[in-house]
Write a structure and sequence with these properties.
InterPro entries: LptG/LptF_permease. There is one protein chain. With 333 residues, the protein is α+β, with helices and mostly antiparallel strands. The protein has three domains: 136 residues, no CATH class; 90 residues, SH3 type barrels (Roll), CATH 2.30.30; 40 residues, no CATH class. The protein has ten helices and five strands; from the N terminus they run H-H-H-H-H-E-E-E-E-E-H-H-H-H-H. Strands 1-2-3-4-5 form a five-stranded antiparallel beta sheet, with no helix packed on it. The longest helix has 37 residues.
Length: 333
């Protein structure tokens, strides 16, 4: 390697590394900008977020590499031209292709490395990031009840709070609508002046102690004469709501393992071969069924081969008319 090659490569490496990480950061921010609504309010820990960023960064590297190579090349030759080094190189009789040759070699090495990375690392990164993204999107929002608004995120419950104290545990003017019974056909209604709300130790349930209120219950089947409507007054009433669905749960990768984006070249070849065999079997079965149902297709080359058609096929139209109009045929006879 000559000094000119070292000069060009050294001038290229710095801008390439800088533009690569800047481009990757911009692409990650663009991704989060599209999915920000599904990440906010999910109660995700820092480890889960950084793990997703790690997987998604690996998946976005094939998009960041071409942009970083382009920008760093422009910056490299721009800096060399600004410092009149390109003028000195040209005045020494060195052609443009000669002093660009080291960058062609470096770009070829980057392309080969990107191919290996896309073949062996990107499928795994896509699988992990897709599974984790599905878990985050499908997770319900973190528990948050606003004042003066009905919150129906809890299964079979709708709760409205008139006012919450600063610690979010003491609540005022509470209304709770509860749907119970088979197919949710029984409605219960609760009104309380105040109460205390706090999650359980394992964060699976929300315990609420209502004070000074009324509970309206419907007992029996709706529309039945035996249905009872009960009103209960209470000084203190305790209710427990299941909020386990609000917790983030990580699922298995097997749900997305059959997606074509998760395959490398060897797995794609196997899948293409399997699809080709499946297509051939479908075509063969269709052709066999077609020939078995339409007998006339067995004699499609009769004119060429001199095969005589049976009378059952020659009189096919007449037989159909007799079958459709049996009375008319009997009258003729």
């Amino acid at each position: 390697m000559k000094k000119l090659d070292k000069l060009i490569i050294k001038a290229f490496i710095g801008p390439f590394v800088a533009t690569f990480f800047i481009t990757l950061f911009v692409l990650i921010m663009q991704f989060f900008w599209l999915w920000i609504d599904d990440f906010v309010g999910k109660g995700l820990d820092a480890g889960t977020i950084f793990k997703f960023i790690w997987y998604q960064s690996a998946a976005l590297i094939p998009l960041a590499l071409p942009l970083s190579v382009l920008l760093s090349s422009l910056m490299t030759f721009g800096n060399l031209g600004e410092s009149f080094e390109l003028v000195a190189i040209k005045s020494a009789g060195i052609s443009l292709l000669r002093f660009m040759r080291p960058l062609f070699i470096v770009a070829s090495c980057i392309a080969f490395g990107a191919f290996l990375f896309s073949n062996y690392v990107i499928p795994i990164a896509n699988l992990k990031s897709r599974t984790l993204l599905a878990d985050i999107v499908l997770a319900k929002p973190a528990f948050a009840i606003k004042e003066g608004v009905f919150f129906d995120g809890i299964d079979k419950f709708a709760i409205k709070i008139g006012k919450k104290e600063a610690n979010d545990s003491i609540i005022r003017d509470v209304i709770v609508y509860q749907s119970e019974g088979r197919n949710g056909l029984q409605d219960n209604f609760l009104v309380a002046k105040d109460g205390v709300m706090k999650p359980s130790a394992d964060k699976r349930y929300l315990d609420i102690v209502f004070k000074n209120g009324w509970r309206y219950e419907e007992r029996g089947n709706r529309g039945d004469s035996s249905t009872e409507y009960v009103r209960l007054g209470f000084k203190e009433y305790k209710m427990q709501m299941d909020i386990s669905a609000f917790n983030f749960k990580k699922s298995d990768d097997s749900a997305n393992v059959n997606n074509e984006k998760m395959y490398n070249m060897r797995q794609l070849d196997v899948a293409i071969d399997s699809l080709s065999k499946f297509t051939e079997d479908i075509s063969s079965n269709f052709e066999n069924n077609m020939f078995s149902n339409l007998i006339i297709l067995n004699y499609k080359d009769s004119v060429v081969k001199g095969v005589k058609l049976p009378d059952s096929i020659l009189n096919f139209k007449k037989n159909i008319e007799i079958y459709m109009n049996p009375k008319k045929d009997s009258v003729k006879k």
